[in-house]
Design a protein that fits this description.
Length: about 675
């Protein structure tokens, strides 16, 4: 039986959740296929948890999750064999397949089955993509197919160390080439050189791609990837010279067995350096690759996926909070009226609806950057590297911005559910643990923003020379002061953000020129202007997201029913308005808005909240999250929040006996002592 308030919400909506779900899934066929796949796995008793994973010990959770993952992969392998397309195009097809598979593991199905995250995720999201992107064709023939089939190989990717993360030039792990034996000798020379964090490395993986500093006859040749066996293929015992283990419980994603790795005089054949982009010949001569950024192609691939990952987390949280807000009644708006649904409070709408819009448009941006990534891969294969720096800069700032905003958004949504949101059974804890991890892995956010800012300043200088700029920064040459219109519209808001970003970059460019005269050294200038650098990168991210929202919404609305197109336009405008209001301080520096104009922005924002209210539940229904995906007592489709909260409380192990033994051993003697 469904909660009556939720039933009324769905009945009163102006759009169909099924129409929204079809658009969101990429069409009716895609939606039906995804639902069929979800049903196949979610109705499998072997893949249903006998108890909530939060009740398991750390060791129990690992053992249970690995066993479940193996059952899942075995079933998925059989399904894939029965449904695979016989037409396979080598590398491009493999990249698309890896992306789709990674999205399967990190998306609704993977989340439903593995609330604490999929334990072999790094094998598919980093180990295989690195083999694909950094290996020669010969190396791919030897390793990739076996690794894809998991034929004696479970891999992970080891870059971060105990003492260094995003600053990869500071990594200490060494690979010294021995020309006499044609081998590399790998060492972690200090405690801080130990590899730290790779998922699955603790007890699951037996092979690792290790990023290490290459030395030949004492000469340093930069950072390169090496394929290293860390556990015996038969016994799974650590290989000689390998010190490996796991790093312990974390804030979240405890289903992933993150590990540490120390190497002491570990020898590997010369052919196990991944040599697509740089080579070491048998005699020890080094052949430099064409472009340093190519070595970090895996990181770009993963950052593109992270943008989509965090949007998924944000929409999970938004669905839970929106449904809960339709069921929860509290605090009369008018003293003579009954308690309303808290969804009727404008303050609650301001917490929920912008997060829904962000989740939608973060994913749309992720899809756009994924298309860009595929095009760049094709260009690289053809020897063209012109667009690689733009892709790198864009993936950096979007990963940083979207993960940070999603982390904050999930916390806003948790608090929007009051005290009930603090319970583990609400599942906000797991969602937050997943999304906040994305702020630091695959590049700490501040460092990524600094990388983007350097790209922006370089492009601004190129624009002054009247050179052609990459598509995502073309506004740096074209941005003009937008004309204020009484009727707020997307085009004006987008132009406002692009103008503000341009002016802030221009101001920073000129400020840095002044500082160079005073400080002389470039690294001192970069350090002093660091905060401003992160700010311009953030503004660029907002400008790109606004432009993408504008252009993609126009495309989508041509294909949708008018009423659904109207709701999507509301969400796009709400999203871009939120970007503008978040950037108001930076906008005012370059564009003199008066109080009346600022009030116009805020009034339009409040108007959009009220307009979207009628369709809020229907839109989150349209994300088509199964109750197991949400894993929440507060967010189930039937809205029976209070019944589920009580049922979950009764399951607590402490409630399985009327009197706990501590009463007899401690409490009763304490009370009898008459303190």
């Amino acid at each position: 039986m469904t909660n009556a308030d939720l039933q009324r919400e769905r009945a009163g909506a102006t759009i169909s959740s099924e129409d929204f779900a079809e658009w969101w899934a990429g069409g009716g066929v895609a939606l039906r296929e995804r639902r069929a796949l979800d049903k196949l796995f979610m109705e499998d008793a072997d893949l249903t948890d006998p108890q909530h994973t939060s009740l398991m010990s750390h060791k129990e959770l690992y053992e249970y999750t690995i066993a479940k993952a193996c059952k899942f992969l075995s079933k998925l392998r059989h399904w894939h064999a029965a449904n695979a397309d016989s037409k396979v195009d080598a590398q491009q097809s493999a990249i698309v397949t890896l992306y789709d598979f990674r999205m399967l593991l990190a998306g609704p199905l993977g989340t439903a089955l593995f609330q604490q995250n999929f334990p072999l995720r790094l094998h598919f999201s980093m180990f295989l993509p690195t083999l694909l992107g950094q290996s020669t064709e010969e190396q791919q023939r030897e390793w990739f197919e076996r690794a894809w089939r998991m034929d004696g190989i479970i891999g992970t990717y080891a870059q971060t160390e105990l003492g260094h993360g995003t600053f990869i030039r500071g990594l200490e792990t060494r690979a010294d080439y021995d020309a006499q034996s044609e081998e590399f000798i790998l060492n972690t020379p200090t405690l801080t050189a130990y590899k730290w964090w790779p998922g699955g490395m603790g007890h699951s993986a037996n092979m690792v791609i290790v990023m290490a500093q290459l030395y030949i006859k004492g000469k340093h040749h930069g950072l390169h990837p090496f394929l290293v066996r860390i556990r015996n293929a038969e016994t799974h015992l650590p290989e000689p010279g390998v010190d490996v283990g796991e790093i312990g419980p974390k804030l979240g994603v405890n289903g992933v067995n993150n590990g540490f790795l120390g190497l002491k005089h570990v020898r590997i054949p010369r052919t196990q350096m991944l040599m697509k982009n740089a080579q070491v010949r048998p005699n020890g001569s080094f052949v430099k690759g064409p472009e340093p950024l190519l070595t970090y192609g895996t990181m770009v691939f993963v950052r593109v996926m992270i943008i989509r990952d965090v949007s998924f987390c944000l929409l999970q949280a938004a669905t839970i909070a929106t449904r809960y807000s339709a069921v929860r009644r509290q605090s009369p708006i008018a003293a003579d009226q009954p308690e309303p649904q808290i969804l009727d409070h404008t303050t609650q709408q301001a917490k929920l609806f912008p997060q829904i819009a962000k989740g939608i448009y973060f994913r749309i941006a992720a899809d756009a950057v994924w298309v860009m990534y595929q095009n760049v891969v094709k260009e690289l294969d053809a020897g063209q590297r012109r667009n690689l720096p733009e892709l790198h800069a864009l993936s950096c700032c979007l990963k940083a911005y979207c993960s940070s905003e999603s982390e904050e958004g999930v916390e806003v949504l948790r608090k929007a559910c009051g005290g009930h949101g603090y319970l583990s059974s609400s599942n906000f804890q797991q969602i937050y643990g997943t999304v906040t991890a994305a702020c630091t892995y695959e590049g700490e956010n501040t460092v990524l923003l600094l990388q983007t800012a350097r790209f922006l300043l370089k492009q601004y200088a190129e624009g002054l020379k009247r050179k052609v700029l990459p598509h995502s920064v073309r506004y740096l040459r074209n941005a003009t002061r937008p004309k204020w219109r009484k009727n707020i519209e997307l085009t004006m808001l987008t132009a406002l953000l692009e103008f503000a970003a341009t002016e802030n970059i221009r101001t920073l460019y000129e400020y840095q020129r002044e500082q160079r005269k005073l400080l002389k050294l470039e690294h001192l200038v970069a350090n002093k202007t660091g905060v401003r650098l992160t700010q311009v990168a953030t503004l660029h991210a907002r400008a790109f997201l606004a432009r993408t929202a504008l252009e993609e919404t126009e495309k989508f609305c041509k294909q949708l029913k008018p009423v659904l197109a109207g709701v999507l336009k509301q969400l796009a405008e709400l999203f871009v308005l939120e970007l503008c209001l978040s950037s108001l301080g930076h906008i005012l520096v370059s564009y003199s808005l008066n109080q009346r104009q600022v009030d116009q922005l805020r009034a339009r924002y409040e108007h959009l909240l009220a307009d979207f209210r009628v369709n809020a539940v229907t839109v989150v229904d349209g994300f088509d999250f199964n109750d197991r995906v949400l894993g929440s007592t507060l967010g189930c489709f039937d809205g029976r929040v209070y019944e589920r909260l009580m049922a979950e409380a009764r399951k607590s192990s402490l409630n399985q006996e009327s009197v706990n033994s501590t009463f007899y051993t401690h409490l009763k003697p304490l009370m009898q002592g008459k303190l």
